Structure formats: structure tokens, C-alpha cells
Amino acid sequence: MSQNDPTVRLPLPTDGPLDPPPEWELLRGRCPVATVELPSGDTGTLLTRYDHIKALLSDPRFSRPAPEDDSARIAPEGAGGVSTNSGMSLSLQSNGEGHQRWRRHVGKYFTARRVTALRPGMEEMAETLIDAMVQSGSPADLKAALGFPLPVYVICNLLGAPAEDRDRFSYWSDAFLNVSRYSVAETGAAHEDFVTYMSELIAAKRAEPSEDLISTLIEESRAEGEGLTDLELRDTGMALLVAGHETTANMIGKMVAMLLADRTRWDSLLADPSLIRTAVDEVLRSDANLGGYGVRRYLTEDYEVDGAVLPGGTTVFCGLSAANRDERVFADPDEMDLTRSPNPHLTFGAGAHSCLGQSLARTELQVVLEVLLHKLPSLDLAVPVARLRQIEGLTVGGLREVPVRW
Asked: Of 114, 274, 284, 385, which shows the fewest CB atoms inside 10 Å?
């Protein structure tokens, strides 16, 4: 972006793998409602201020682009992932009463009480995975050893899916969330395979129900007659498997990298483990790598932002990471303050579409920190921060690997 060329081209480049794009501050100050050009060549609108983004995300009129919307494509023609605008959960209504009905059925299984009940199992699995990493020797890739397998175990345990299928889940997630790595044909084939897998899993749960979420939703439908349809069950399972492990797996790696990038942060947690809870939320706020495109909203009617009227049919990209560093809301926003409270960051969104699994994600991140600090207090990055490598094209943002030593 320059004075001669006001169009912003996403994703914005950064100076380092954990650094925010320098343009964020300029955009918030001078151009908070900016025109953006995507790799596809399509254009949309980028918001970077906290209040603007929170207001739009909280507006019940608008939601993520649906398959029938003529929304801006992210990836070029022929690429798969979200560029197809096909959506993975076609039966799940993205707005209105249908969406709220779905959240009422599924959301009750993500309450703080239910997540607390899962915590002992998370702790045991984290310890097992870290022990295996230590046994294999230093250095190690913390993302591969802990960051990926732990969330897979948690979400599979919740849904009742076999954790040994984790490599298949990883491939399917990558195919749906990466906008540059796969073709439309590859993404379509992955979708078909995932549909078959989830349909067979649901059939198995009908035949032999257990205590998992899918079995409970099936029983709820039988008992009340107002539960989720078979298609909604299938697409719920698919959506939760992808969202429940891909984002958290990447966040675990980024969290550890961010805390070890400045050793004083890690040392402060060693000295006072009671800071873990606020530290997790500060990491979530400070993450500059939530994805290079932000959260999308499709405007079904005209909408005013900061005096500008955005016409219906506009695709808006909400820069959550940029909003989380808005100096109008956060004191010293570019500084990681592990004691920051309150911390009203927008990492999990806002309004009716805020992340259902945020309590689960926070708990997983807290458990990872608690166990790592206890078992590996000498943990450190095995490479300079500048040598950490981002995953290109992944809409949720992440690092390819997190090399550590102890």
C-alpha cells in the first residue's frame, strides 16, 4: 500500500514470522476501511479497527459467505480450499434462527463445566506426548510432537472418532483451509472422502452409541424429535473435526514460539505459574499470524462504516489480528503483557458467530503451558526466531514446525 496505490494486496508481508505487518498501524490510522485485492484478482473491503470489526461481527444480519453468494474468491481459478466458496458444512445454516438452533444443540457440549471434565484427560495425554518427545531426544519439533496430536486426541475423544485416523484428518483440514496448495479437484476429492468417513462414523454411532457428542446428538434427535438432521449431524462432525484441531494445533506451536522468542516471558511464567491463564489470552491477542485474510462477512444489504457506505454484495475481510493491536482499545498494544486483564481481544470473534470452542481451546493452551513448564522448564527455541517458517496459504495461519531443545 502506498499513497499512489491505495489498494491493499492480501496477504500483507511481514518482517519476521511472528511480526505483524507494518501496514496495520497505517491502515488503522489513515485508511480503516480499505479496498483489498486478493490472489484471485477479486476485490473486497478490509477493516482493521477494533470497534468497526466488533460491530460488524456482532451484526445479526451478516455471516460468512454462503455457496449461493457472489462473494470475493481468495484463491485464483483452479485452486481449492476456501476459494471455491462451496463451504464444507452445506447443511448448516450460517445465519438467522437456523444458525441459532444449531448453536443451541451443539453449544451445550462446549460449556466451561463440560470442558473442565475433559481437562484431566488432556493433562494425561500432554504428559504422555511430552515424555515421548523427550525420549526421542533434543532437538525436536514441538508442533509435530505435541501441537498436532494433542488437539486431535481431544476433538476425537469429544466426537467419538478414532484418534488413529489423525493423518487423514490433517490432510482433509489442509485441503479445506489452504488456498494455494491444492486444486479444486483435490479439494473436491477430499470432501467426498470426508463425507463418506463421517457418514460411516455416524452410522456406527447409531448402531453402538457411547458417551461422545455425536452419540448424544443422535439420542437427542430420537428423544425430542427436534434435533439435528442426518445431514446436519454429518456436517457438524466434519466442521468440528477440522476447526477443533487445525486452529488449536497451529496456536500451540505459535504460543510456545512467542513465549520463547523473549526468554523473560518464559521465565516469568516459571516464577509465577498463576499467570498462565492471562498469558494464554495475551498470546491469543498478540498473535500476528491468525491468517492473512481475516474473517469474512458477506453484506446482504448496504452497511455504513466510519462514514463510508459499503454496498450490498461486498465481501468484507475483518482483520482480527490488526484489531487486537488497536491502540484505541489496548494500552501498549505491541507489547506482550502476560498480566493484561481485562483482555477483550477478538481472536474468537464476536456476536452470534463467535467461536463455539473457545473454552476448549483456552483450556488446551493452558494445559500445554502447565505441563511444559513443569516437565521442561529449560525449554528453548532450537533456531533463531527469524528462521521459523510460516505455512503459506493457510487461512488460519501457522508455523511449519517449532524446533525446540531443553
From this structure: 274
